[in-house]
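Input/output pair, single chain:
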Amino acid sequence: MTFLINLVQLLIFPGLLFCVVFGVLMAGIDRKLVARMQRRVGPPILQPWYDFVKCCAKETIIPRCAKKAIFIGAPYLGLACLIVIALFIPVGSYGSAFTAGADLVVILYLLTIAGVTLIIGASSTGSPYAGVGLSREMVTIISCELPLVLILLAIGKTVGNELGILPQE
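Output:
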């Protein structure tokens, strides 16, 4: 019974709710800004929520030549990684869901695993169109990972120097 209570508290954790609501809202704002840059009106800001509700009502279609377990399991593994990342993020006075702080390296690995699960899920279909999509995702991961790591290392070094955690050079 205690496990179920802890699970419910974890699922309604403010950090997780904040990340879901804020992330989907930012995706809507991003889509709107991209449309404005292309001189289009663009979708409403709440369009990602509409898309989510619509996708929940659709049936799952599994391609004939797909590896069924990988095709179905990869998105769940990616979602699990993103939920764990959200639980590491402290929000306001609530802190994070885990008592121990997360290392930036753990968060970076989990972010990479989430992207790799998309690649694995797409490659399990056997479709040439999925091959095009997974190659784009690989290029995105490779091109975004290095700048993100450099930015986080610079922030970590600056914060470490300010807090006196790192030795002065």
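The chain has a mean pLDDT of 82. The CA atoms of residues 58 and 100 lie 39 Å apart.
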